[in-house]
Amino acid sequence: MTEIIDGNEVGDRIKSELESSIGTLEEEGVTPGLATVLMSDDAASETYVSMKQKACEQIGIESFHHEIDPDAPADVLFEKIDELNEDPAVHGILVQMPVPDHVDERAVLEYIDPMKDVDGFHPENVGKLVAGNARFKPCTPFGVQKLLESAGVDTEGKDAVIVGRSNIVGKPMANLLIQKTKLGNATVTVCHSRTKNTAEKTRNADIVIAAVGVPEFVDGSMLTEDTVVIDVGVNRVDADNEKGYELVGDVEFDSAKEKASAITPVPGGVGPMTITMLLYNTVKAASLQHDVDIELP
Ligand SMILES: Nc1nc2c(c(=O)[nH]1)N[C@@H](CN(C=O)c1ccc(C(=O)N[C@@H](CCC(=O)O)C(=O)O)cc1)CN2
């Protein structure tokens, strides 16, 4: 029987544990604060940012939202980041990606105070992660680790294949899985657009993590029995319904489920964990900035 790994359930458990960490901070007079910045009129980005704000409010994190006209000069965004870097009520800053083409994404990430970089994308935080001393683990790969843990998947000695090499998911995921830690110690292969035979690699994997951004790229024929399948993709594809679209992962769920021992659904798998781990990083950022010891889930 294939286990369906429920990201909403795991996320809700972690959020309720975070509430007690927030309680400890409150006793010291600290309310964690997250600033979200949206410079886009993309409907999916708007949805994600509003989900982040709601999740903050749900567990007692103060949320500050800023919208910047996507046609405004890049300096408007940099001035906003300056302001947020200086604001003591803001412990975490998240600029929703992607930013418009005329804004240099790399420069934006480098401009955020690394102590407030709750996405874990600043080069200082990337370096710490690679060195095995992570300050903020990037939210999606961190969420994937938590899902594997909740499903009782021991990564030690396992062959993990990651399909996709993005800075947000593929690269940090590979780094986390090779660390000498409880949720690491795996042997990792990263497949990408120039990989010669991705299906051969995924068929030899114990764990397949699909983060390629192509709807239903991985199907059952690319898997062997008993593989653990984690689907990071959240793709909007045209559909004849009220919304005009439906959500589809990077994995073809029905055929993959036939082979998998455990699999994450879309929606309701990795997506909710991305938001939960953002809350986790924001609480951690507040504790570091105020030097308050807290227990984190
Ligand atoms: N600054 C950042 N930008 C982006 C990140 C990020 O981690 N930091 N990740 C992605 C998108 N993303 C977060 O922003 C994200 C994607 C999906 C979900 C989610 O919960 N999806 C739901 C379905 C939601 C829907 O109805 O559309 C699910 O899978 O169940 C949360 C966050 C790009 N940008």
Uncertain regions spanning at least 5 consecutive residues: none
> Which small compounds were modeled alongside the protein?
ligand LMY7XDAE
Q: Look at the structure and give the CATH class of the largest domain.
A: Alpha Beta
CATH topology-level fold name of the largest domain: Rossmann fold
> Helicity range of the residues?
40-55%
Q: What would the average pLDDT be, to the nearest integer? A: 98
Q: Rough shape?
A: globular
Radius of gyration: 19 Å
Number of helices: 10
Secondary structure category: alpha/beta
Which strand order do you get reading across the main beta sheet?
1-11-8-7-5-6
Total number of β-strand segments? 11
- By CATH, the architecture of the largest domain is named 3-Layer(aba) Sandwich
